[in-house]
Amino acid sequence: MSQETQIGNLGGGISDEDSKLVDSILNDINSSSGQRAEPAVQGQPSPEQIKMMQQQQQQQMAQRQHQMAQQQAMAQQQMSHQKMNMIQKDSNDIVDNIKIESKNIMTVVFLCILFNIDQVDTLFKSASMFTSEGGGLNMQAVFIKALVIGISFYLIKTYLL
């Protein structure tokens, strides 16, 4: 009495590709040994075939898991490289923007210096509404100077730069 497992009692299915691979391996083994093994009943693999198929499936699963782990590691490495490139790009962008905007920056600096010299302050002090009790310029004078600087910058940028 031989022990055979019914195919319906096996857990999990076998794909056609796996079945063909097993048949090919068995044919190679049979042809190399010169002996003919008892052919299995069509559609019912022998216990040895089942064991081989299970081992192959386990190997394939292990290979898939290994490939997935490699792909995840590569994706993480690429993301870290992209972050580093973005950081370098951002720092380069700031320097490049400063170079591009240097005319505007220098214009603002020049206007601020121009409107904060003593001669301009003397003009504002001649009008009593812009002086404080201590003799300095009040907030109204500072506000007017800021407006004049802003308007001057706009005109220079629009028509001269």
State the gist of this model:
The chain has 161 residues and is mainly alpha-helical.
What does the secondary structure layout of this molecule look like, with pairings?
Elements: H1 16-33, H2 47-100, H3 102-115, H4 118-125, H5 139-159
Helix pairs in contact: 1-2, 3-5
Describe the structure.
- The protein has 161 residues and is an all-alpha fold.
- The protein has two domains: 13-99; 101-159, no CATH class.
- 71% of the residues lie in helices and 0% in strands.
- It has five helices and no strands.
- The chain has helices at 16-33, 47-100, 102-115, 118-125, 139-159.
- The longest helix is centred in the middle third of the chain and has 54 residues, at 47-100.
Q: Could you name the key traits of this structure?
A:
single chain, 161 residues, mainly alpha, 5 helices, 71% helix
Largest sheet: none
Tell me the structural class: mainly alpha
Span of the ends, CA to CA: 102 Å
Number of domain modules: 2
Q: Which sequence of SSEs, written as H and E, runs from N to C?
A: HHHHH
**Could you name the ranges where pLDDT drops below 50 across 5 or more consecutive residues?**
none
Helix content: over 70%
Annotation, overall tally of beta strands: 0
Number of helices: 5
Based on CA atoms alone, the radius of gyration comes out at 43 Å
Strand content: under 5%
Mean pLDDT: 83
Looking at the structure, what is the overall shape? Answer: rod-shaped
